[in-house]
Design goal:
The chain is 37% helix and 20% strand. By secondary structure, it is of the alpha+beta class.
Length: 240
C-alpha cells in the first residue's frame, strides 16, 4: 500500500474492505469515488432519481471514502510524525483479532442512510473493542481541537456525556456513544421525500447480495490538505 512521505492535514483510522474486493468496489461505486485509486467511479442508475440528486446526496460520505469510522479525523500533535502514527496503528492492529462482520443491512440513522451490521453481541463487542482501542491509544498523538471545530461539533446539540467525550477524546460519538456504520448518504433532507424513498429502496437492493465483510485490518486514511478528499494510505493487518 502507499507510504506517506509528508505530513497530511488530518488522519483517520477506519474500517474499510480491502481494495479490489466486492465489499470495497460496491461501496465505492455507490459513493462514486475510489479512495484507493483516487478516481471517480460511475454511480448506480436509479430509476426516478436524477444523477445530480444522487451525487448531491452522496457528496458528504464520498469525500471521506468508503469506510466505517473507528477514530475520527484528527490533526497530529506538534512533534508527532507519520512514522510514529503508522507504528502506533500497526501496534493497535496487532493487538486485535480479525473476525467476520454479520450481514449488513441498510438503515436510516438520524437523517442519513448507512450500512450497519445485523445484531450480534459477539461481533458488536469486537467492533467496540477495536474502536475503543483506536480512540484511546491514538488520542495522545492528536492535537487539541481548535475552537472552530469544537463549535461545529456542538452546533448539532450534544448531551453532557457527549460534551465530556468531545473534550476528552476529540469526538462526541465514541465509547458507549459509538455506533458502527458505513455511511451511504449525507443528510436526506437535501432531496425530496420521494427521492429519499427511491434511494433507500435502491440501496437495499444494491447491497442485498454483499458478501460477508472481513474485519481483519485497520485502514489508515488521510486528508492531504484542508477540504480535500480523503485517501487510503494503508491497511494494517490485525492479529499480525
Amino acid at each position: 500500500m502507499n507510504t506517506e512521505p509528508t505530513t497530511a492535514h488530518r488522519y483517520a483510522v477506519y474500517f474499510a474492505p480491502a481494495p479490489g474486493t466486492l465489499g470495497w468496489l460496491a461501496g465505492s461505486h455507490w459513493l462514486g469515488r475510489c479512495a484507493a485509486q483516487l478516481q471517480a467511479l460511475p454511480q448506480l442508475d436509479i430509476q426516478g432519481v436524477s444523477k445530480e440528486d444522487l451525487q448531491h446526496l452522496t457528496a458528504a460520505p464520498r469525500r471521506y471514502g468508503w469506510h466505517g469510522t473507528l477514530k475520527a479525523p484528527f490533526v497530529l500533535a506538534p512533534g508527532v510524525d507519520w512514522a510514529t502514527l503508522h507504528q502506533t496503528v500497526q501496534s493497535i492492529a496487532s493487538s486485535l483479532q480479525p473476525f467476520t462482520l454479520p450481514p449488513m443491512q441498510v438503515e436510516r440513522l438520524d437523517d442519513f442512510l448507512a450500512l450497519v451490521p445485523m445484531a450480534s453481541p459477539t461481533a458488536e463487542a469486537a467492533i467496540h473493542a477495536a474502536a475503543a482501542a483506536c480512540v484511546t491509544q491514538l488520542q495522545p498523538l492528536a492535537a487539541p481541537l481548535p475552537p472552530a471545530e469544537l463549535a461545529r461539533r456542538r452546533s448539532g446539540g450534544l448531551t453532557p456525556r457527549q460534551e465530556e467525550l468531545l473534550q476528552r477524546w476529540g469526538y462526541p460519538f465514541v465509547l458507549e456513544e459509538f455506533r458502527f456504520h458505513l455511511s451511504l448518504t449525507g443528510p436526506l433532507g437535501l432531496v425530496h421525500a420521494d427521492t429519499q424513498a427511491l434511494v433507500h429502496d435502491a440501496a437495499e437492493q444494491f447491497f442485498a447480495d454483499l458478501p460477508p465483510l472481513q474485519f481483519n485490518s485497520l485502514a489508515l486514511f488521510a486528508e492531504p490538505a484542508p477540504g480535500t478528499d480523503f485517501v487510503l494510505l494503508d491497511h494494517l493487518e490485525m492479529g499480525a
